[in-house]
Specification:
The chain is mainly alpha-helical. The protein has 20 helices and three strands. Strands 1-3-2 form a three-stranded mixed sheet, with helices on both faces. β2 and β3 form a beta hairpin.
């Protein structure tokens, strides 16, 4: 009997199934990162690999070509047409890579990850360089296949996975502009801060008490604990689906700020996930479409809100009631603590002013690697050269705090680093537009109502889902595409005017 269900509806049903299976995959990953006993690692990896193959097979079912062709002839609404294009994009990205190449990249990544863990402990770049060389060669082949399929260069093809529509030329222009003013601004701010007196927080801060503080703050930011939870992990992350969002942080008893700031960062990701368009749940239209937008939501909370004087005024009484009073908890001192600029070797510990330099460094190196202009053995020299130029730091021989510090390359995640700096630009640009729309924004925040940020972001970004590419959405929300001037003005206002 002939199936009379419209082709579009059959495709939508498939993606709802993919969503349900993806939900289980996300929960398995969350459990692996937070609860799973160490002895279960091999079995969990095998189970998740099996589920990943099922998902890939469903996306590559040959019958889908017929469904797509038929669906294009059916009468669809404007949003259904957008959803159909997103379905096709997802299939094209999966189909472009052969099964053999995908499996080879995974094997090389597994070997690189095992080597990276040991090399980082021993500061042994040489021990990591061989497996990384094999992985880079595999990723180049993967990027070549994807690029040929999409009509893009290797690195543009990898960017397309994380940031649809973004091209290397655009990244180079944006980052090149930032590189021109950033080093001098860092020097200027450091000279200004040299005369400031800052009182450090005095621990210890019990982990359970920190956990309660983090829950209190992220609830203030708008996170819904009925559809999510906060847990502990070695590296903070956010995962899950809109109905069940999992975020994590990590604690240090001597200082509560890393856990709090990490929680606020992940809350930005989590609120975005929780507020994706629910009427399209299970469809590509209701999924995050842009890594830069995702990072921008996290940085709106962690970098725009958290280090502001207004938030320090709201946070001060919470800290005193949670941990007991101490001089470091006074609002002006908190503000100075949260805005200290100190160039360092470690990206994840960098302040917001020096952080862009870390991303520019990594982007330049991985772009040259993928395009074949740089080889793995050249990375330490390129790293040291750029670290000296951008941050004035000598990193020679310090591999575990240099090119071994990040896990991205060992996991084969080339093309993701640029989205971190684009996210900072998104956050600054949105904050600028927000201040035009919300009267007395800082008054709302200082009075303990930081959820006004989410109230502004929700209808403009969160509930839009994947309807637009990031730069097109920024044009609608702020009146212009990516513009690094807003990031520069944000830094100048905060660090040279103390607001």
């Amino acid at each position: 009997m002939r199936n009379t269900t419209p082709a579009y509806d059959r495709l939508a049903a498939l993606h709802l199934r993919l969503h349900h299976l993806g939900h289980m995959q996300a929960l398995a990953t969350w459990d692996r990162m937070t609860q799973m006993p160490q002895g279960g690692a091999a079995a969990r990896a095998a189970a998740q690999a099996e589920l990943a193959q099922i998902l890939r097979d469903l996306k590559l079912d040959p019958i889908l070509d017929t469904h797509f062709a038929d669906a294009q002839r059916e009468p669809l609404s404007e949003l259904q047409e957008v959803n159909l294009k997103l379905m096709q994009r997802e299939q094209r990205l999966s189909r472009a890579i052969s099964n053999e190449t995908a499996a080879h990249v995974q094997r090389c990544s597994d070997a690189a990850m095992a080597s990276w863990n040991l090399a980082r402990q021993d500061n042994n770049w040489k021990g990591f360089s061989e497996p990384l060389s094999h992985l880079v060669a595999a990723v180049r082949e993967e990027a070549e296949q994807l690029g040929q399929f999409l009509g893009l260069s290797r690195y543009d093809a990898l960017l397309e996975r994380h940031e649809p529509g973004l091209r290397t030329s655009r990244v180079n222009n944006l980052f090149g502009e930032i590189s021109m003013w950033l080093p001098d601004l860092i020097i200027q701010v450091r000279d200004r801060q040299a005369t400031e007196q800052v009182i450090q927080v005095q621990g210890p801060f019990p982990v359970e008490t920190q956990r309660q503080l983090c829950k209190m703050v992220i609830k203030m930011l708008g996170f819904d604990f009925e559809r999510g939870r906060l847990d502990d992990s070695l590296h903070p992350f956010t995962g899950g689906v809109p109905e069940d969002v999992r975020l994590t942080t990590r604690y240090r008893e001597e200082n509560f700020l890393p856990a709090l700031l990490g929680s606020m960062h992940e809350t930005g990701h989590a609120c975005y996930q929780q507020n994706l368009p629910r009427e399209w749940l299970g469809q590509p239209l209701a999924e995050p479409h842009s890594a830069a937008l995702h990072e921008g939501q996290a940085l709106s909370f962690e970098r725009q809100l958290a280090p502001s004087l207004a938030f320090s005024q709201a946070l001060s009484p919470l800290l005193k009631s949670t941990f007991g009073p101490q001089p470091a908890f006074e609002p002006q001192n908190l503000f100075r603590l949260l805005t200290r600029v100190q160039p360092g070797l470690i990206r994840v510990e960098a302040d917001e002013l020096t952080y862009p330099a870390h991303i520019i460094l990594r982007t330049e190196i991985e772009l040259a690697l993928i395009e074949g202009e740089l080889e793995v053995e050249d990375i330490p020299f390129a790293w040291d050269e750029r670290m000296k130029h951008l941050l004035g730091i000598d990193s020679r021989g310090n591999f575990n705090q240099g090119p071994l510090q990040d896990v991205h390359w060992a996991r084969g995640m080339f093309g993701y680093f640029p989205t971190y700096l684009l996210g900072a630009m998104v956050a600054a640009q949105c904050n600028n537009a927000m201040r035009k729309d919300i009267d007395d924004l800082d008054v709302h925040i200082s009075n303990g109502n930081p959820s006004c940020l989410g109230a502004w972001l929700k209808p403009r970004i969160w509930e839009i889902g994947a309807r637009f590419n990031a730069e097109d959405l920024m044009l609608q929300v702020t009146g212009e595409g990516f513009n690094p001037d807003h990031l520069r003005r944000h830094f100048e206002r905060r660090y040279l005017c103390n607001t």
